[in-house]
Specification:
15 helices, single chain, 408 residues, mainly alpha
Length: 408
């Protein structure tokens, strides 16, 4: 597969981190040329539709490049995704939500449908993909299509004058839920199962399948945990409780199914990978446990009214679980080399991530207790953002160095 395709993903990851630093500068240097909302919307769309979306597709293509029936279509898909995503990002920087950014976001959704079609056709043709992996991948593709209902509904909601109502927020939460709890989670687990199977790491098949079906049954009702902050009938709270508890149980089962693979990693002295996987799965469990708290009466409103909690949760999910999981899978399939630069990059990135999460959640606690604001809160977040940016740059450099050595 062309090296530049992976460079595309690191470029988007770097840009996402760079705009994150940019946003952290606003409280310290308020007179920055671009409006904050323009950068915020560009940053968030690039994180989900650029870095994470393109990266998981790249992992799939890297694993099965030699078995793809149409490599020309795969190349066209990646180049189109890159160009459309970059243009979408620039339009958000230019006008935030406006005519051009909405057009490019809509075009991106249709490219996503193309991606779904391509991956589905590829998986169907490749008979060596484990059965469990296919379950997760097919479910992830369905979730991706379902998530697009959210953005499409925003146009209707705005056209009938409901943009300032809770319906607009519900559409956004619907989209996000089926993106990171549906598409990205399920696809990454499916890819991980493929990698484990290729390396002959055994897992508990019954547990993984049971975990999958419970997770799928819980995925739809767990969405209602995202809307408990508004006035709602009792059955919504019931559905939210069923969904979040079911999702938590499913995560426990899925993680338990990987214990055998963990023992093999220990025997093979792959301690770095084992430690990173331990961090990833701890974050996943913490995230799922936090979601259980949303069904506590009154807590949902308190959470959704505290901006630092929402940002902390999104970063915990997208940076802590999804991004690190992507990077670890990059390492496991030899996209990223295992050397001192990779270790340094991961260390700096995780330091920045940990610092970012601690500041956001400690500040949330202080807000709830009406104590005030941490004196170093904004400078601390800026330092954390710089660390994330530096960590990503080092990891990108490690990949580039490996590619140069491989070309010699």
């Amino acid at each position: 597969m062309p090296k530049i395709f992976t460079d595309f993903t690191f470029f988007f990851f770097f840009l996402t981190a760079f705009t994150g630093v940019w946003m952290r500068l606003y409280p310290i240097i308020p007179n920055i040329s671009l409006p904050y909302k323009h950068v915020l919307h560009g940053h968030s769309h690039l994180a989900i539709l650029g870095w994470t979306f393109l990266s998981v597709v790249i992992i799939f293509l890297t694993i099965y490049w030699h078995k793809l029936k149409s490599k020309t279509e795969a190349k066209a898909l990646i180049i189109t995704l890159f160009l459309v995503t970059l243009t979408m990002f620039l339009t958000f920087l230019y006008q935030s939500y406006g005519l051009y950014s909405i057009i490019m976001s809509t075009v991106h959704i249709f490219i996503e449908y193309w991606t779904v079609s391509f991956i589905y056709r590829s998986v169907k043709r490749i008979h060596t993909i484990p059965k469990g992996s296919k379950l997760f991948i097919y479910a992830s593709l369905i979730s991706l299509v379902i998530s697009s209902i959210g953005p499409f509904s925003l146009g209707y909601i705005s056209s009938v004058g409901l943009k300032e109502t809770f319906w607009f927020d519900i559409a956004i939460y619907f989209y996000l839920h089926f993106q990171y709890n549906g598409w990205l989670f399920l696809f990454l687990i499916g890819l991980f199962l493929i990698i484990l199977d290729a390396k002959k790491y055994t897992i508990h098949q019954r547990l993984i399948q049971l975990g999958f079906w419970i997770y799928i049954l819980a995925l739809f009702p767990s969405f209602f945990a995202s809307v408990l902050w508004m006035e709602h009938p009792p059955f919504v709270s019931t559905l939210a409780a069923i969904g979040t508890i079911g999702q938590w149980i499913a995560v426990i089962l899925i993680l338990a199914s990987f214990l055998r693979a963990r023992k093999l990693l220990m025997k093979q002295n792959l301690n770095g990978i084992r430690i990173l996987l331990g961090i990833i799965f701890f974050i996943l469990l913490a995230k799922s446990t936090m979601e259980l708290g949303l069904v506590t009466p009154g807590l949902a409103s308190l959470v959704f009214e505290t901006r630092s909690v929402i940002i902390g949760y999104l970063h915990l999910t997208l940076l802590g679980f999804i991004s690190v999981f992507i990077l670890v899978q990059y390492t496991m399939i030899n996209i990223l080399p295992i050397n001192k630069y990779t270790v340094i990059g991961f260390s700096i990135f995780l330091l920045g991530f940990t610092m970012n999460e601690l500041l956001l959640f400690i500040q949330s606690l202080l807000t709830w207790l009406n104590i005030g604001t941490l004196s170093f809160y904004n400078p601390g977040l800026l330092i954390a953002s710089f660390l994330l940016l530096i960590g990503i740059a080092v990891l990108w450099g490690a990949y580039s160095e490996k590619s140069v050595e491989g070309a010699k």
